[in-house]
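Contributing new records

If you add data, match the layout below exactly. Sequence lines come first and carry their own label; structure lines follow with theirs. Keep one chain per record. Anything else will be rejected by the validation script.
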Amino acid sequence: MNNHDLSTFLHRLFIYAFCILATVVAEPPPSSAETNRSIQEIRGSLEGGGQIIYTLSDLKKGDTLFAYMTSTGGNLDPLLGIAKNLQKADIHPADILKAVSASPQDLVTAITQSADNRFLAWDDDSGSGFDASLQFRVPADGTYFIFAESAITDQNLAALEPGFTSGSFRLLLGLDAPEVSENIGESTGQPFATIDEKYIKRHVQVQQLDVMLSEDKRLTFQHLKKLQPGDLISARLESMNGSPVPQLYLTDFGSKPLIFGKADKVGDSVLLSYHSLTGGDGLMLYVDASTMESLPNKTGYRLIVGINAPEVLEGKAVARGLPVFQQSKSVQIRLWVDQIANVDQQNENYSVVGSLELIWQEPAFAFSPDKCGCSVKKMRLNDLEPFAAENEILLPNFIFFNQQGNRWRQGENVIIEPSGRTTYSERFTVTLQEPGFDFRAYPFDHQIFNIRIDLVLATEAFLFENVDQPHNALGDQLGEEEWSVINYDQKIESVTMSENFENSRFTMSMQVERHLNYYIVRILIPLFLIITISWVIFFLKDYGRQLEVASGNLLVFVAFNFTISDDLPRLGYLTLLDRVILTSFSCAAIVVLISVYQKRLEAKGKKEFASKIDNVVLVSYPLVYVVLIAFEYLRVTSSLGS
């Protein structure tokens, strides 16, 4: 290679190197958006009035945070907020609701102003449906906090009642990942949102219950509400009258004992303490006196249970905060009776056509209206029962306690509101047994028709609440011509169905009386005429004719008795009407005997004495008959009173 070629090669090499260097220098460095890009998916749940605070550490100025929160269960209406000043933003939701409700401004304006004061940025419904979606440009380096809450809303169809929603959620967070605002993305990179233990507030709850035990009920239990990981359960059981204290123990969802309480130093109380590492629900606290030799009737105990309140063990705690135990679900019942039919006096039963409505709150049925595009869900009971069984949700199943045969249901319907308020209604026809019928005063008797409805599950699960008695509980045309309802009442009570357990019972009692027109026209008036005829024959003074009429009248009485026998109840005791008929028959028979005697006196020539008998009978017969009837009436009514 000569010098010229070497010079050309070096020149070209210099040009190539310069071009490569220029390209490298001209290529921009990776942006902070690309180096910090990260997506994090979080799943959780919120109870009504709850909130979760996530810590976003070491955010850089210029970063853009995208957040999207959607409900995945329940009726949760999500709300997201970003804050720098935790003290300013961390206000208990219950206090927010109280302030918003008391605000002179309208609900929407008050909620907006409250959120503006708390957060640097917030959102309620910018996503799909009720989903929350927000975008926040970080103004300065530092630590920020994102609040996941329930929006204050109203899901009561009947009235404006602001409140919180509950349910599970999916929270998608993204740094410089704009697709998150469309609820798109999967977790990538390092998690940047955490729950800092120092920002977790352990809610303190203390609840006090009075527990009554007896020989018939030696055991009772209470379901604890869902616990958070790390919650401390403290319980103290003490006697109210110096009686021995029964066992106190805690079980898991499978009834497996977790811990037993121990007697204190004095021996008049049992103490229990349990630290729940994983939280969850299904825990049950038992008070069990089954091993005690004897138990005075209705022995009272005081049970104090606290969550994160260790002072309970020292007996110093007072009730505060939310209830510790799950409350028995209150079931509101309404009953309308449209018809009473087929009153069977002999078999002591009757048929009822009516309408029934049950209303209860089931949080597990709650839903977000935006997910179905509906304000309520409507279904039949056959659709609800499989869903409840699959999700282990208890239903307030019921029976007619005094039912005979089948209950025929028409037009049954289930309506579920977004809050979980569930209404079941049906129209039914059922035959009911009424062993309490008392016909001793028949047909002047008053009867009680009882409709008894029992909840199948014990009072620890479901409980009828105070009756909301409809104004028109009885139909205008009940359809039973023999009876008229003069009064009715509805009440709720607890009845013992099995050892240690009570069930809630609803009873509608209708006091009825008979329409007497039929009995007066068809029985009493003919009976009066027969008795009158047996009396007036003593005016004849012709004892042969008198005997013929008395005998014929007695035969008429027998035929009359056969005629009305199908209308009379066949009972194991005599009714008032039976006594009246028997007394009347006896009087008619005595008239025949007197007539025979008078005929014989006439045949012996003692007509004057027979005539004196006529005079005595004409005066005494009606008086004796009235006295006998009055005696039977007073005898029956006095026995009813006793």
